[in-house]
Amino acid sequence: MLALKDEKELTRAPTPAKSTNASKPAGKSTSSVGKQVESASSSHRKKRARVQEEHEAEVSDDDVRDQAYSEEVSDQEQETDGEESDEPTKIVSKKRQPKKAAATTPKKRPTKSVAKAPSRSKSLIIKTPTTQRSISASAPKTDFEHARNRLHVKAVPDSLPCREDEFLEIQEHLESAIEDGTGSCIYISGVPGTGKTATVHEVIRSLQAKAEEGEISPFQFVEINGMKVTEPSYAYVLLWMALSEQKVTANHALQLLEKQFSTPGPRRLPCVVLMDELDLLVTSKQTVMYNFFEWPNWLHSRLIVVAVANTMDLPERMLSNKVSSRLGLTRINFQPYSYQQLVKIVESRLEGIQAFRREAIEFAARKVGAVSGDARRALDICRRAVEIVETNAQKAEDQRRLKAERNPFEDLGPAPDPEQVTIRTVDQAIKEMFASPNVRLIQTASLHQKLFLVALTARLRRLGLAEVEFSEIAHAHLQMCRLHNIEPPMLSELSAICASLGSSRCLLVESGKQDLHQRVRLSVSEEDVIMALKIDPLFRRLLDTLPSAPAT
Ligand SMILES: Nc1ncnc2c1ncn2[C@@H]1O[C@H](COP(=O)(O)OP(=O)(O)OP(=O)(O)O)[C@@H](O)[C@H]1O
Ligand SMILES: [Mg+2]
């Protein structure tokens, strides 16, 4: 019999919310929700944030710099006076980012310069650090290397085929808001890999180029990624920092933002904020999301919010229907790519590169189109197929060399050219990615069984242990449910789920003990869990927030 009845007993008591004295815009009624930095779920938020932080640290140097940059702010939390200035305090001249796949795009940090009134003719853009990363520092030597670089999901593509309509719609929306100097909010939804982030980035690049040419008014661009912020309220800190270069606490940033958005600032530049991975910025009270949707409606904000999420009805689910309809969001839904569109996307990445047979690309696109329409997945499969061809070619070359060493007088002729990627190679890549019987077993598990496996993996990684107690997993499981609006199971149900995973040999559970202290470990590999679940949009999101695996 389990001692605990519900998740509350597993969750630490929330810290009381601090009140703020933020000023309100004239004539606007701001909900009390919008007046406080939520702390009710701060303990689980902090945990999640730490988890993400560690995950980020493993990803790339750029990410490390990003995080360090973010942490610098919280470490140095200086309460500064928020006197509003109409003039920007940091202006960075805008350079168009190179669009080559393998191009190195160094991150820029805002640099101070003498504040000047923005002028249409000047190509000045205030920028936050970009999210682009380098893929390969050295120039690719072979078609395969070239293909691998171009197919990398982090590579910035030369074009975004099949997203022309969405591109235009977003561009027109942002351009008119920038030109009118009004606030505005656009909500973009779509399942993973449908090009939401890529399209918004491309629109911003295009608008920055136009501003540089003096075709449109200058504007600021700030990107806040739910995956990267250590805590949802940190979004306030980032926005205020981008607007003012002041490093303040989240509470103070909220006050200063509200003060600025409710005060006339005729010379203030419009600010486009990309709130990416918005799903991860939701909080129990929805304060952050609410504020970012609400501020564009304030008369003096000039805030243009581009909110990007996977869920189509996130505003309705998280805010009340009444509030979300009052916010008047412009909505765009990105549909999953069809097979034909995936072919186009992969082919456009491979333009001028002779690494693939056309039918191999079609095969990959068909497989992905039938399941998810996720361009990221199609690119990953094709990239893996290239690696397989390269490995095979390397093996053949090694054998040739060995033979030559053994029979120095035998003429082996010229080395054969490596094969192109064929349907067989793509098939092998797909099988590799999904093949193991454990992967199939996990894929057939129920939603809560899968969540339990992810919760266990998260705890194992977090603690760096081989096994953890049931209570630890239950805690993580219930947090995930709450975060993703999934009906949580009772603890007794969770215990049954754990037992069922034990009998199907996904888990090893301590026998003879069915309480909170029962020790549990994975019986399948972590890799199998990840492989099996990352095809599912919800689980991919959860897996993305797992702490990094300890180095072996
Ligand atoms: N139309 C397209 N043309 C070329 N590449 C594309 C296209 N759509 C998506 N991609 C590529 O697919 C990958 C995933 O795209 P992106 O990150 O924009 O997806 P997303 O919709 O933001 O997914 P998520 O919801 O997971 O954040 C990126 O590498 C992107 O460049
Ligand atoms: Mg995205």
UniProtKB/TrEMBL annotation:
Keyword NADP: no
Key words of the record: ATP-binding, Cell cycle, Cell division, DNA replication, DNA-binding, Hydrolase, Magnesium, Metal-binding, Nucleotide-binding, Nucleus
Gene3D superfamilies xrefs: 1.10.8.60, P-loop containing nucleotide triphosphate hydrolases (3.40.50.300)
Acidic residues bias (residue ranges): 72-86
Domain annotation AAA+ ATPase: ranges: 182-333
InterPro entries membership: AAA+_ATPase, ATPase_AAA_core, Cdc6/18, Cdc6_C, Cdc6_ORC1-like_ATPase_lid, ORC1/CDC6, P-loop_NTPase, WH_DNA-bd_sf
Annotated region described as Disordered, given as residue ranges: 1-142
Location of the protein in the cell: Nucleus
Record flagged with keyword Protein biosynthesis: no
Family the UniProt entry places it in: Belongs to the ORC1 family.
Protein name: Cell division control protein
Organism: Linnemannia elongata AG-77
